[in-house]
Amino acid sequence: MHDIVQDYYGRQLQHSGDLKTSACCDISQVPEWLKPLLSRIHPEVLSRYYGCGLVCPPLLTGCRVLDLGCGSGRDVYALAQLVGPTGEVVGVDMTDEQLAVAERHRAFHAEAFGYDNVRFVQGYIERLDELGLEPGSFDVIVSNCVVNLSPDKDAVLSGVQRLLKPGGEFFFSDVYADRRVPAAVRNDPVLYGECLGGALYWNDFLRLSHRQGFIDPRLVTDRPLAITDPALQPRVGNLHFYSATYRLFKLDTLETACEDHGQAVVYRGSIPDCPERFVLDKHHSIETGRVFPVCGNTWRMLHDTRFASHFDFIGDFSRHFGLFAGCGGGLPFDTAGTDAGVTPCC
Ligand SMILES: C[S@@+](CC[C@H](N)C(=O)[O-])C[C@H]1O[C@@H](n2cnc3c(N)ncnc32)[C@H](O)[C@@H]1O
């Protein structure tokens, strides 16, 4: 599979417009705050962007960030501006042609930003231990439309777990399916290269995360993907695909369900660019100044991470009130605009 993917991203695709699905975000989906950052990035880097989501979580100043499958480096150069001169961003990719574009424009970006805080490493994301990266040394690991391409996703998450600092997070966008992808789709080189063939059934992704010690994966955003190439559409049949961004915290105290300890948090409104509310995930948009009840896991994701100083914390773990209301179950993605949620007439 590595050879097929290297050929696809190294030789067959030349720019974002060559993709055959709506996986790649268009400019209308880019938030306002990101536009000035992207405007400082070299056009050739931007033209070879093949991501499917936004991998810039808040509060990155001074952080060490690793980008798995960085491609030509669009996200690396955006993140470089967010971490600033006291932070560092390392991009890993296996494809020569992609890394050559990223490297070619390093001096251009150092000049534009006023500092050089990026590094690119050639290698496989399944073998992160071979790249000389120090275990427990990254605050945040990101990845944009890459894990689906890996033939060994357990190895990828195991490497992420090893490289993250305690309290760090894997914040990544990828493609998921609403059911297990059949062999005919998985073995189709174009569907694989297009990030569909290797996509995980969402519930298998949750199992994979649990297996690798990420006990409470949090869905941040999602959107259905359209197969825009008419020749590919019949080949996927009734499968539905979604682009989704998850955040996985490295916290060894998380529980397998959201337990209610009667706790709450109050957001201080102090995270840059988030004065009105802090969005932890799709179900936790925490308004500034409001007492916001949380389960034990959410409490820990705010209390034991880089977000702690931006919250006041009410309560502790001394009491337990049962399962937190509204926890879990069912397809987590919005199905609007697809036929996935339509029940056929009996
Ligand atoms: C869909 S592109 C996304 C590139 C980049 N993240 C972006 O947003 O433009 C997938 C990238 O992942 C890289 N890749 C895929 N599988 C990989 C693996 N197992 N190890 C390292 N890089 C990989 C490919 O070379 C390619 O550059």
| Shape, principal axes of CA atoms | globular
Query: What small molecules accompany the polymer chains?
Result: S-adenosylmethionine
Radius of gyration: 20 Å
CATH superfamily of the largest domain: Vaccinia Virus protein VP39
Helical fraction equals 25-40%
CATH class of the largest domain: Alpha Beta
Q: Unreliable segments (pLDDT under 50, ≥5 consecutive)?
A: 341-346
Q: pLDDT average, as an integer?
A: 93
**Beta-strand content bin:** 15-25%
Number of helices: 12
Number of discrete domains: 2
Q: Could you walk me through the main structural features you see in this protein, from its secondary elements to its overall organization?
A:
The strands form 3 sheets. Strands 1, 2, 3, 4, 5, 6, 7 and 8 form an 8-stranded mixed beta sheet that branches. The chain has a 3-stranded antiparallel beta sheet with strand order 12-9-13. A two-stranded antiparallel sheet has the order 10-11. Strand 4 (138-144), helix 7 (153-163) and strand 5 form a beta-alpha-beta unit. Helix content is 26%, strand content 22%. The chain is α/β, with parallel strands linked by helices. The protein contains 12 helices and 13 strands. The radius of gyration is 20 Å and the shape is globular. The protein starts with a helix and ends in a 32-residue tail after the last strand. The chain folds into 2 domains: 2-249, Vaccinia Virus protein VP39 (Rossmann fold); 263-314. Mean pLDDT is 93; it is low at 341-346. It has helices spanning 2-12, 35-38, 43-47, 74-83, 96-104, 106-113, 153-163, 183-186, 189-193, 202-211, 233-236, 296-303, and strands at 64-68, 88-93, 118-122, 138-144, 164-177, 200-201, 218-224, 241-249, 263-267, 277-281, 284-287, 291-294, 311-314. Bound molecules: S-adenosylmethionine.
